[in-house]
């Protein structure tokens, strides 16, 4: 007989914790700083909000569907490996997309220590645009002689020194001057001469004039002229597709390219978290160790702390430009790809188990019915939705606010690391908090703390100003998810706890965050970041006024906790039985006496 394979629960938890640590570290290297990179590329706040909203909504739909398909076809390990590799590749492809203007290279970075002048950067950018545009004959604008004038005058002189010839191709570059409050747009017309085409045409004309008596030469010259004309028409069609401002300007072209790439990136990365989570839980449930399932979440938070602080520290010590044209913010993408690659070998040893008896679709539908049938659960879901909406505003535009007040990547990374550490510390305080406050009151306290944080963010005054208030994340995000966990245990039936928890996560992290990013982008574009944070704070405080009243009016439905009944002490049962026997004897003796 074959010996049964011994199952190492501790080893499985170590492998799973290692994977969660590495993957959370990789995500923290890039996702908190992604909106900063979109700002560097030249996107407006509304475009940035739409991109982040698309990312959240794709995750809302694709994560459960991809998890179900990978389970149905028993391809979990292949899906996890492919998701890691493809998401790392898609993130690196984003670096190939150029920015919309010259000012994005230096508008949010200190370039006083660099030897490259703004004039040289303008010439380099024109050279890059000329190389990207698919034209076969392009003359690069030469740099003019240095003058003892201001940078603005030098730039205008350099641009005006470009040679203008007949039928020269005219490019329009949009320069974005980013200030703290206003945004100005300047159009610079650069005429690029087409010397080679003109020279060849002149040579053909002179050759034709010298040999009028040769019909063969005339036919050859006419065919060559037709080929040149067709080539010019093809080049103009390509230029019209890439850079013609009559139909769509460069900024909108950039937005749609980024929209496609971010969508592909999210399609690659979204299935990973749910698939790993399902495989681990079913494995632990198979060996009757599902009570140790929640220990991996702490390692995920610690990995995020290491990722966000390490990436911020590394990028802050680099120059504004790495090489000739690569910005230092590209290091976030390289770090994400490197740490994701480190997580690939761990996938081969991940503890995954396939339990075909469990149905994911029916579990989610049943969880939705349970949440809809309980008024207190609906109030908790509405609070989670609002917290996700507010959290998306903080995640997307807090770093913009810090950058406008002089913060570097070091300040941003430390600020986010303090928030994550505070959130991870709440489980240590949950025991004392549960004795003092009910889950409904804890939910209220978490909402108030997040409103105070948003109000504080709107009044930042310096680089380090955002760090002290991040300690409140212990009672905002940490308290929220603890109260959601308690609500899940209260409303869920045996076997549906994880499905109910995922319903709350989808409402908060995906649906609420998606709508919040979209609305937040338009508010920032119209009114500014400070107004966004103040508006979010007002909405949360108004909800805090209505939430206690609604909780007081809602009926409380008490459910039987079967786990406590099974864990009851036998001594208590024996005492209750002896008391019942004593009562029966006393009643019998009283009846006999009567």
UniProtKB/TrEMBL annotation:
It is found in: Membrane. Signal peptide: none annotated. It is a multi-pass membrane protein. Residues 141-161, 199-221, 569-594 are annotated as: Disordered. One of its GO terms (cellular component) is membrane. Residues 17-534 form the Major facilitator superfamily associated domain. PROSITE patterns: PROKAR_LIPOPROTEIN (PS51257). The chain crosses the membrane at residues 12-38, 78-97, 254-276, 297-318, 333-354, 375-394, 442-459, 531-550. Keywords: Membrane, Transmembrane, Transmembrane helix. Residues 572-594 have a biased composition (Acidic residues). PANTHER family: MAJOR FACILITATOR SUPERFAMILY DOMAIN-CONTAINING PROTEIN 6-LIKE. Belongs to the major facilitator superfamily. MFSD6 family. This is Major facilitator superfamily associated domain-containing protein. It comes from Oncorhynchus tshawytscha (Chinook salmon). The lineage of its organism: Eukaryota, Metazoa, Chordata, Craniata, Vertebrata. The gene is MFSD6L.
């Amino acid at each position: 007989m074959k010996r049964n394979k011994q199952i190492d629960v501790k080893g499985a938890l170590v492998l799973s914790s290692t994977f969660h640590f590495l993957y959370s570290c990789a995500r923290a290297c890039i996702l908190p700083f992604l909106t900063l990179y979109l700002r560097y590329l030249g996107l407006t706040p509304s475009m940035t909000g739409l991109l982040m909203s698309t990312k959240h909504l794709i995750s809302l739909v694709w994560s459960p569907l991809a998890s179900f398909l990978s389970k149905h076809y028993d391809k979990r390990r292949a899906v996890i490996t492919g998701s890691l590799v493809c998401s790392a590749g898609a993130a690196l492809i984003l670096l190939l997309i150029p920015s919309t203007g010259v000012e994005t290279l230096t508008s949010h970075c200190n370039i006083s220590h660099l030897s490259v002048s703004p004039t040289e950067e303008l010439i380099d950018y024109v050279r890059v645009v000329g190389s990207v545009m698919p034209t076969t004959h392009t003359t690069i604008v030469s740099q003019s002689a240095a003058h003892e004038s201001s940078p603005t005058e030098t730039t205008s002189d350099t641009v005006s020194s470009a040679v203008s010839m007949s039928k020269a191709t005219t490019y329009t570059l949009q320069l974005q001057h980013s200030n703290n409050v206003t945004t100005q747009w300047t159009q610079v017309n650069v005429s690029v001469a087409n010397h080679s085409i003109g020279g060849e045409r002149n040579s053909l004309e002179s050759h034709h004039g010298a040999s009028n008596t040769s019909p063969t030469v005339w036919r050859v010259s006419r065919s060559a002229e037709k080929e040149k004309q067709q080539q010019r028409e093809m080049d103009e069609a390509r230029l019209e597709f890439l850079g013609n401002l009559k139909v769509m300007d460069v900024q909108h072209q950039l937005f749609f390219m980024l929209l496609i790439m971010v969508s592909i990136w999210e399609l690659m990365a979204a299935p990973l978290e749910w698939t790993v989570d399902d495989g681990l839980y079913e494995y632990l449930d198979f060996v009757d160790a599902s009570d140790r399932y929640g220990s991996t979440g702490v390692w995920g938070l610690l990995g995020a702390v290491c990722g966000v602080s390490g990436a911020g520290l590394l990028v802050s010590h680099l120059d504004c430009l790495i090489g000739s044209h690569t910005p230092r913010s590209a290091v976030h993408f390289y770090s994400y790809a490197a740490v994701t690659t480190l997580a690939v070998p761990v996938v081969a040893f991940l503890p995954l188990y396939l339990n075909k008896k469990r149905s994911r679709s029916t579990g989610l539908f049943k969880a939705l019915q349970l949440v809809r049938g309980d008024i207190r659960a609906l109030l908790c879901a509405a609070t989670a939705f609002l917290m996700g909406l507010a959290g998306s505003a903080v995640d997307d535009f807090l770093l913009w606010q810090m950058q406008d007040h002089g913060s570097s990547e070091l300040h941003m990374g430390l600020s986010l690391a303090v928030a994550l550490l505070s959130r991870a510390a709440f489980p240590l305080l949950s025991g004392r908090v549960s004795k003092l406050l009910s889950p409904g009151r804890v939910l209220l306290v978490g909402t108030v703390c997040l409103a105070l944080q948003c109000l504080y963010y709107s009044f930042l005054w310096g680089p380090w100003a955002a760090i002290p208030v991040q300690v409140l994340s212990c009672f905002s995000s940490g308290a929220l998810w603890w109260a959601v966990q308690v609500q899940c245990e209260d409303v869920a039936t045996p076997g549906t706890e994880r499905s109910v928890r995922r319903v709350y996560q989808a409402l908060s992290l995906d649906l609420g965050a998606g709508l919040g990013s979209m609305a937040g982008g338009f508010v920032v574009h119209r009114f500014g970041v400070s107004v966004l944070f103040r508006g979010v704070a007002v909405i949360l405080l108004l909800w805090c006024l209505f939430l206690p009243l609604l909780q007081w009016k809602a009926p409380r439905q008490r459910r039987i906790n079967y786990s406590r009944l099974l864990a009851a002490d036998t001594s208590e049962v024996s005492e209750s039985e002896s008391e019942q026997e004593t009562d029966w004897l006393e009643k019998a003796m009283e009846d006999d006496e009567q």
